[in-house]
Structure formats: C-alpha cells, structure tokens
Specification:
197 residues; mainly alpha; 0% strand
Length: 197
C-alpha cells in the first residue's frame, strides 16, 4: 500500500483541505471543552485563542477545498455535480431550519449552518474524487453512509441541546464535533491509501 500514490495537484488541495477540516474539528472540541465543560472552565483568554484558531483553520480548510473542487476534472466519471450538491444543501438547510423552529421550537444558531456546510463540502470532495477515479463505488457508499450518519447525529444533538443541562448539554454539543472528526479521519485514510475502491 503506497500512501499518496499518484496524487494530482487537485488531490493534494483536497487532502490538505480535509486535513485542515480535521484540525478545525479538533480545535472546535478544544474550544468547546475550555468554554463549556461544567466545573472546569478555562480562563477566557484560552477559550478565545482556541476559538480564533478554530475560525482560522476552518477558513483555510474551505479555501483549500474550494481551490481543489474548482480545478477542472481529468475525466467525466460522475453524474453528480458540485452545483447540484450545493443547491441540495441550501434546500435541506431551509427545510431543517423550518422543522427545527416550527416543530421543535429550537432557537436558530450557527451550528445548523455549519453542519450543512460541512456535509455539503464533504459530499463535493467525495464526488470530485470519485469522478477523478480515486474512489470506487465501495468507498463512495461507505463515505456517503458516514457523512449521512454524522449529519443526522448532528441534527439530533442540535434539536436536543436546549432541552439539556450541565454535563448532558456539554456532551450533546461535543458529540457532533467528535463524529465529524471521525468521519474526516476515515475519509483522509481512504484518500491517502485508496484501500477501498
């Protein structure tokens, strides 16, 4: 097994973007823990540093991913377009926004937008890599299932958050970050090694 075997410029951008996205999740976890862990909150300065680093890593990740996605494909292997994924994400965000506010009376916060943005970005990267022949059908199915599971888990936690208190609230906020980080880690390993086609 050769890691990073025959990576193109596009694949290097997408891999580095996802690596930065993993770093973003880990920094977000550090910020969440330092700011919201009951009974052991860090000084405000430490929380602020984690938050600024999280934002910087997230912006850098998005820039790298967009740069990679915008490079023209080397082949035409996928019927799914990144434009279609983004349009679907906008529609899904609108539906989940209405459902969470109208049915569950959940106050709107940035987490819903971040969750959908993350899922759309990962789907775009997945189908770009499939189109370029890096991922075969099995890898696509596995990663689709993981991205969907991470998004559903995140939405459930999003709905429950304001109904919880103390440690339960803290853990509820932590779970989506940990699950997204795990999904990205699997994505990176499969991308680097191309072990599942």
């Amino acid at each position: 097994m050769n890691f990073f075997d025959n990576f193109t410029v596009r694949e290097r951008l997408l891999f580095s973007g996802n690596a930065l996205m993993l770093l973003t999740c880990l920094l977000y976890i550090a910020w969440w823990t330092s700011a919201f862990r009951p009974g052991s909150r860090s000084p405000a300065g430490i929380s602020s540093v984690f938050l600024v680093c999280t934002l910087a890593a997230g912006i850098a990740a998005i820039v790298q991913l967009v740069r990679g996605i915008l490079i023209p494909p080397s082949t035409t292997g996928s019927a799914v377009s990144t434009g279609g994924i983004l349009l679907g994400a906008v529609i899904l965000y609108g539906i989940l926004l209405v459902v969470s506010r109208s049915i569950f009376h959940r106050p709107v916060t940035s987490e819903l937008f971040i969750m959908i943005l993350w899922a759309a970005g990962e789907l775009c990267v997945l189908f770009v890599l499939h189109q370029d022949g890096r991922f075969g059908r099995s890898a696509v199915i596995l990663l689709l299932a993981l991205i969907a599971a991470g998004t559903v888990a995140g939405f459930i936690c999003y709905l429950k958050y304001y109904h919880l208190e103390g440690m339960a609230s803290f853990v509820d906020g932590l779970l989506p970050l940990a699950s997204d980080a795990a999904v990205i880690a699997v994505f990176l390993v499969l991308h680097a090694a191309a072990v599942i086609k």
